[in-house]
Amino acid sequence: MRPKVIWFSVFVGAFFLLYIVFKITWQASGLTAVRLPTYAGNWYVGKKDRLIEDLDYCSSAAQPIVDHESGARLGADQQELDINQPVLAIIAPHAAYRYSAKVAGHSYAAVKQQKVQRIFLLGPCHQVRFHGAVLPVSRTFRTPLGDLPVDRSAIQALLQSPLFREDEAIQKFEHSLEMQLPFIQHTFGMDAGAGAIKIVPVLIGNLSAPAELDSIAKLLKKQLQRGDLVIVSSDFTHWGKYYHYQPFREDVKENIEKLDSRAFSYLAHLDLKGFRQFKEETADTICGFNPCCILLQMLPPNSRCTLLKYNTSQDVMGTRTRQSRERSISYMAIAFSGSSWAGRP
C-alpha cells in the first residue's frame, strides 16, 4: 500500500474517532442543556438589534402576503388565504438570509396573527446521512434574540419509536432548522418565560421505504393538537454543476420554473403519490423532499394550499458573476390552511 494511501486512511480513521468522542462527550455533558447558534454572524447577522432590523424589513416587505407575480411565474392557481381557517403548516426556505429571507418573510406573515402554542419543525440534514429522524438532547435552542424552549414531553413520546433517536451533534451542525428560529421569535414573541412558545425540532434523514415515511408522519400527527403549527424547512430546485444537477443547459430560468411549477402543483393538490413520482422522474434536488412528503401525509384531506412567494437565488444575485450564472436555488413560501389538527383539544 502506498504511503499516501496509508496516511489518508489514518487521517480518516482519526477524524471518525474524534467525531465519536466529541459526540459522546457532548451528549453526556451539561452543554446539551442549550443548543447555541451555529450560523449566527455568518448566514444571518449575529447582533440582536441588527437582526431585528432585518426581520422587520422582511415582515414589512411581505405585503401583500400573497404575491400574484409569483403565481404567474409558476402558472399556479393562486388562492387567497382564508381568514376563517387557521394556517396549519407553512413551508419556508433555509438559505442564508441575504438569499431567501424575503421569501421566508411571506411564510411567517401568513401566521403572524395566529395564536400558536407549539411548533413542530421539520427539516432535512445536509451535513450527515442517517436513517430515520433525529431529535435534540437540548432543552433550549438559543439565537441572538433569546431562547426557545424545547417540548421535552413530545420528544420523549416520539423516542418510543425506533425511527426516532437523539443526536445533539447532528442537530448542532445542521442549518435547516436554525434558520427558522429567529423568524419564529420575531413572529410569535421573544419571551422565554412560562408562556413561551415551545418547539419540537425534527431532522428527517434517509428513509428506505415509503412505509417508514408514513410511520413517521403518523407518529408526528398523533402528537399534534389545536394551537400547533408545523413548519417545513425546505428549498426547492438546486441547479448547476455544483449541485450535480444539470438536466438542461439552455433556457435555464424557464426550465427551472417548469420544475418548480410541477413540484408546487403536487403539493397544492396534496398529491403525495404524484410528488414521489415527480421526484423519481426528474431527480429534482428538493432538499426538503422527505419533510414535504411527511407534511402531505399529516395534513387533513380538506387542507387548502396557497403559494405566497417564489423566487430564485439568481433573482436575488443576478447573473453578472460566473458563480451566480452557474448555479441556482429556488425558494417558495407556501401555506396550508384547514380546520384543525385531528380535532384534538
What does this structure look like?
By secondary structure, this protein is of the alpha/beta class. The protein has helices spanning 3-28, 48-61, 68-74, 97-109, 152-158, 168-173, 181-188, 210-223, 252-268, 272-282, 289-298, 313-317, 322-326; strands spanning 34-35, 87-92, 118-124, 133-135, 140-143, 146-149, 164-166, 198-204, 228-233, 238-240, 304-312, 327-337. It is globular, with a radius of gyration of 20 Å. Strands 2, 3, 4, 7, 8, 9, 10, 11 and 12 form a nine-stranded mixed beta sheet that branches. The chain has a three-stranded mixed beta sheet with strand order 1-5-6. It has two domains: 1-32; 36-337, Protocatechuate 4,5-dioxygenase, Chain B (3-Layer(aba) Sandwich).
Keywords summarizing the entry:
345 residues; alpha/beta; Protocatechuate 4,5-dioxygenase, Chain B; 2 domains; nine-stranded mixed sheet; three-stranded mixed sheet; 13 helices; 12 strands; globular
Number of domains: 2
Number-wise, the strands total: 12
CATH architecture group name of the largest domain: 3-Layer(aba) Sandwich
Mean pLDDT: 90
- Head-to-tail CA distance between termini: 66 Å
Low-confidence segments, ≥5 residues, pLDDT <50? Answer: 27-31
Describe the largest sheet.
9 strands, mixed
CATH topology of the largest domain: Protocatechuate 4,5-dioxygenase, Chain B
Inertia-based shape: globular
Strand content: 15-25%
Helix content: 40-55%
Assign the CATH superfamily of the largest domain.
Answer: LigB-like
| Structural class label | alpha/beta
Strand/helix succession: HEHHEHEEEEHEHHEHEEHHHEHHE
**Rg, please?**
20 Å
Return the CATH class of the largest domain.
Answer: Alpha Beta
